[in-house]
Amino acid sequence: MFISFGKNKANYKKGQIFPFLIAVLCVVIIMVMITVNLGQIGIMRVDAANAADAGALAGTSVLSGALLGFGLKSDMMCGVALETALAINVAFCTIPFPASVGYAMAIWTSAMNSQLIEYTKATNDGWMAWTNAKKTSLQYTLQNVGVDEQRPSFEQFLEDAYSITEPTSASASAHYQEYLRADTWKTYDYASTGFSRFIGNEKTGYWREDEFGKVAPGEISMPDIEIGYGWEWQEETKKTYSSYPVTRAAVGKTVYSDYNNYVEAQIQGSSMYSLDMVYLHDIPLFNVMLAVPMGVVVFVETYAYFFAIFIASVLLAPFAVFLAAIIAAIATLIAVLMVEYIPAGLTMTDDEVDKPIVIRVSRQKPGRNYTLWNFRYGTVSAGARSHLARVDGSTIEPTIKDALSDSITSYILAIVCPVAILAEIAVNYKKYFDSDKHLFETKLGEVT
Length: 448
Description:
- The chain is α+β, with helices and mostly antiparallel strands.
- It has a domain at 43-141 and 273-356 and 388-445.
- The chain contains 14 helices and ten strands.
- The protein has helices at 2-8, 18-94, 99-143, 154-162, 169-181, 194-200, 209-212, 284-312, 317-340, 350-353, 399-405, 408-416, 418-427, 429-432, and strands at 224-234, 239-242, 261-268, 276-279, 343-347, 357-365, 368-369, 374-375, 378-390, 440-445.
- Helix 2 runs antiparallel to helix 3.
- Residues 245-252 have low confidence and may be disordered.
């Protein structure tokens, strides 16, 4: 074939390849346009996905910090409970019944008030944690969604601030530096985009406190939150119009979706953490170390004291034995219950820990007509789900509970010499109050 072409090439006319070249170029141009179009849509999808992931991780990071705070508070409450239990032991074992009950009750009541106050604070923190987590999620989501709104034009500034619709060179020169510096009250709304002000306003912008709740004690946020921002640039008027700060119209229609550019974020999450109390009776070792020895001492002391009183009275000995046993049993029950039901920390179920934050993001951009090709963007959406997980037995419960309960030696030592185990806790407190046990892992997943 090549030999035939070489022999007859003089007979071919010049320029016959040109039509084929034009056809190939048209195909290449069309393919480039399609590639660019798909690339732009891909960038939008990546921005939306990154925004959802960033928001979900930011929210669960806030929750992780809250659970760490609960764990540290648990350790503190456990320390207070141990001090209270020892003080009650001293009161019952050194002061005769019933005077011992009065001293012990004063100690117990003071400790209970302190622990209940801490529990109430933790409950409020559980409300605040979820409100703050959703607020942080919204902020990070919207900041990473890829908003490309234009700053209001100089012409728009002149018309709105000075009612100049047809600027001259003199009027433009007089106000252009003011527009650039944005250092006067007239240029505040023109120094940045409406979206920047939307994100910068934490009370009526991206987070409406009257609707979503405040990050404050006693405030509970909505489980599901939806907010968006819409804007539109009109080429013929050189003006930007936006929906800031409105989220919904009175009829329930989203205002921002009326614009050809908008972003929307939807967040689903819990309203609060449900916390329960850990008591000293939930830590078996302390029953052996504190309640049981104290109960034995209280029974013996109370029985001997009242038996001697009844024997010295007009009552006969059989009745004295019976009454002394009843009083000793009552005194023992009071003493043991006081110690066992001292609040010693906080706890929550696995379901509470695993409550996720779910984020859905939507982004719409108008198409662009480049004469030869009409780019189409439309609306893209992405979602993310993030939750906390226990790592190496992570818990908000007082870490001394697991450290002691896993050791059989601790039980034996507590029975033989309770003071020894208390000394061991005091010397090696870092072993028993290990704050690393309160760390939780953040896990990111897809929205199903």
